[in-house]
Amino acid sequence: MTGLAQLAAAPQGVVLAAEDLSMFGTDPWWLVAVKAVFCFAFLMLTVLFSIVWERKVVAWMQLRIGPNRHGPWGMLQSLADGMKLMLKEDVIVKRADKVVYVLAPVIAAIPAFMAIAVIPFGPAGNEVSIFGHRTAMQLTDLPIAMLYILAVASVGIYGIVLAGWSSGSTYPLLGGLRSCAQMISYEIAMGAAFASVFLYSGSMSTSKIVEAQEDRWFIILLPVSFIIYVVTMVGETNRAPFDMPESEGDLVGGFNTEYSSIKFAMFMLAEYVNMVTVSAVSVTLFLGGWRAPYPVSTFWEGANHGWWPMLWFVLKVQLLLFFFIWLRGTLPRVRYDQLMKLGWKVLIPVSVVWLMLVATVRALRNEGYDFSKIVLYVAGAVIAILLISFVVDIFRDRKAKEAEAAAGPEPAFDPMAGGFPVPPLPGQTLPPVPRRRSRSERELVVSGGPDTHSDESASDGKEADGV
After folding, report:
1. What is the 3-state secondary structure (H, E, C) of the chain?
2. What is the C-alpha to C-alpha distance for residues 83 and 44, in angstroms, rounded to an integer?
3. According to the UniProt entry, which residue ranges have a biased composition of type Pro residues (predicted)?
């Protein structure tokens, strides 16, 4: 109940108000260009480092050496991989829709870079000086910045679907549709996790959400929302164990099977940039954004001023990137039905129930109720819902048993009824297979063991009968 207690103890008034974002949009054009180039360079350098780091960490987990040839300690391996992909032969499939085939990687890569525009690297005030101009450590901000992030993330799905469709092949098409269904399914739970943050912070602006975490980070106040978002961001980026579009066993390479050279590299670039973007969003929403960790901020007053906030932000992003790598080196790939069941039957119901719980607590707090009454009302509602569901399950099971008794025993399942073997459906069982002797039993019979006594007694009986 710690999260509910913090919610109830929060100040009143969570109605979305007009934010004061006047500090944005006043920079000269050349400073805006410098910030845009910095955002692009930050993503590219982080991607290059993440690729090497992933291969190093996974090699360490699997007791291997990892890349150690290009550059000191193999740190230039990413550049070598990029040069290799650019120098490979660029093949265009004969049956492909050439225009869409070429545009699909671009559509997948560009939206991945756009979300970083509203991510704050530091305080919203004029904290730093760039060539003599005081400016905020953020490219821009919007009153609906989080909706902008959701919108540009959704556009990236079109690149994957169009890549699979335009290739003119069956397997890429299946991979594209599979990825589309996966990303749409997990975006619903992600949106519900965002809504809990909006209710608590009272804003959709990224800078205001970070300001609302001055006292406590939202990972403490909204732990369920953080867990849901962490799971959904792994599914959104198609990373292991949710890398269904790249299932080597059944779809070869998924939606990018027919791509090569620089177009294939753009898909990989979009995946890693999306990793950095969702990690930055997670840091902004739940981990205090650019704010220094708790022990540092208590004894150092300047930790959240100047250029230092960028250091804390980058360290938090790298920590979440390590979490991505850790999952890939630890967990096996799940089946597609398990992936969709987790998204639709677990994450979405849990996120909606948690959102209703947060909204109830905030509404009761705004009405002036104290925490004891809020706990009483919420606990009573939860117990009533559990009792109702228990009674419904009892009567539903009773009706199902009565229907089974009236129908009589089901006919035995015949897997060869249609002329070819058919796997059993849930609830059906295969007929018992005649038992075959194991290898040890067969060797025992040949060597004249105990199993041969019956044969010897039978032969003795036949001799006694004069046969």
Report:
1. CHHHHHHHHCCCCCCCCCCCCCCCCCCCHHHHHHHHHHHHHHHHHHHHHHHHHHHHHHHHHCCCCCCCCCCHHHCCHHHHHHHHHHHCCCCCCCCCCHHHHHHHHHHHHHHHHHHHHHCCCCCCCCCEEECCEEECCCCCCCCCHHHHHHHHHHHHHHHHHHHHHHCCCHHHHHHHHHHHHHHHHHHHHHHHHHHHHHHHHCCCCHHHHHHCCCCCCHHHHCHHHHHHHHHHHHHHCCCCCCCHHHCHHHHCCHHHCCCCHHHHHHHHHHHHHHHHHHHHHHHHHHCCCCCCCHHHHHHCHHHHCCCHHHHHHHHHHHHHHHHHHHHHHHCCCCCHHHHHHHHHHHHHHHHHHHHHHHHHHHHHHHCCCCHHHHHHHHHHHHHHHHHHHHHHHHHHHHHHHHHHHHHCCCCCCCCCCCCCCCCCCCCCCCCCCCCCCCHHHHHHHHCCCHHHHHHHHHHHHHHHCCC
2. 15
3. 421-433
pLDDT in tens, 274-327: 999 999 999 999 999 999 988 887 788 788 888 899 999 999 999 999 999 999
Please state, in angstroms and rounded to a whole number, the distance separating the CA atoms of residues 58 and 46: 18
Question: Which residues of the chain are under the pLDDT cut of 70?
Answer: 1-20, 126, 247-252, 408-410, 434-467
Per-residue confidence (pLDDT) for residue 146, from 0 to 100? 92
pLDDT of residue 316: 95
Locate 298 and state its tokens: 């208590």
